[in-house]
Amino acid sequence: MELLVNAVKKIHKLNVCKSSVRYVNSLADSDLKTERDLPLVIGSSQALVQKLGTQVEVRTAFITEEEEVALLLELEPGLKKKRYEFDHWDDAIHGYRETERLTWGEACQGILARVRSVAFASGSSLLGPVHVLDLDKTGYIKPHIDSVKFCGSTITGLSLLSDSVMRLVKEDAHSEWLDLLLPRRSLYILRNQARYDFTHEILKDEDSIFNGQRVPRQRRISVICRNLPA
Ligand code: OGA
Ligand code: MN
Questions:
Q1: Over the stretch 91-121, which tens digit does the pLDDT of each residue have?
Q2: pLDDT at position 9, please?
Q3: Is the CB of 134 under 6 A from ligand 1?
Q4: What is d(CA 39, CA 49) in angstroms, rounded to the nearest whole number?
C-alpha cells in the first residue's frame, strides 16, 4: 500500500501543473459564480451552437482527482517507454505518443463503463480497444475528421493532466465553427454532424484561447472511446 501511495504522490508531483490546478480550482470555487457559469461551448453564431447543441457535450469533473490518478497509474508505465513523435509533419497529430488498451484494471474499468454508458446508446457496437493519446506540452492535433471506415457516429474522450481547447470547423464552410473548453478531468462527446461534417482539432499552447481567455496547455493525455460504423 505504501508503495502505491508513493507512486501516486510521484505522479502527482510530476504531472500536476500549478496553473492548471488553479484554473480548475477556480471553476470549482463557489465564490466564482461568473467563472463557473462560463459556457463550455461557443461558436461562430448562436444558431450554430444551438443547432449542434445536442451533438456536442462537455461534462466537467466527469472523473475525480483519484480516478485521474488511477488512470495515470495504469497508463504511465507503458507510455513512458515510448518517445514523443515530432517529425511526421504530414501526420494529423504533432508531438504525441499513443497506445491502445483492451483490458483495464478494476478501478479503470468502472470509469470506462461510466464513459460508455453516457456516450453510447445501450447495445451499440463499440470499438474494442480504448485509444490513449499523450500530447506533449508542445503537441497539438491538426484539423481532421476521424476515419468513417473505422469509426462510427460517436467519439468521446476524457482529458487528463491539462485543460485544452477543441475547435470544430465545418468542412465545407470554414466560417462555421465551435470552440469547446475541455477542462482537465472533463468528458467530451461528439456525435453525428459534429463528428462527420466538422473537423476537430486540439489547439497548440500558443493558440490555446477560449472565448478570449487564455487556457494554458500542459502535457495532456486523452482516453478516447469510439463506436463502430453501422
Ligand atoms: C484523435 C483525436 C482528440 C483528443 O485522436 O483522432 O481527435 O481528445 N483526439 O485527443
Ligand atoms: Mn480525431
A1: 899 999 999 999 999 999 999 999 999 999 9
A2: 39
A3: no
A4: 11
| Type of residue at 117 | S
User: Which class for 68: exposed (0-12), middle (13-18), buried (19 or more C-beta within 10 A)?
Assistant: buried
Instruction: Output the residue whose Cα is nearest ligand 1's atom 10.
Output: 222
CA 131 – ligand 1 centroid, Å: 9
Task: Decide whether any atom of ligand 1 lies within 6 Å of the 222 Cβ.
Answer: yes
Asked whether 141 lines ligand 1 (CB < 6 A), one says: yes
Query: Within 10 Å of residue 94's Cβ, how many Cβ atoms?
Result: 19
Question: Which ligand 1 atom is the nearest neighbour of the CA of 131?
Answer: 5
Give the model confidence (pLDDT) of 35-90 as tens digits. Answer: 556 899 999 999 999 999 889 999 999 999 999 999 999 999 999 999 999 977 77
Record the pTM. 0.86
157 ligand 1 Cβ < 6 A? yes
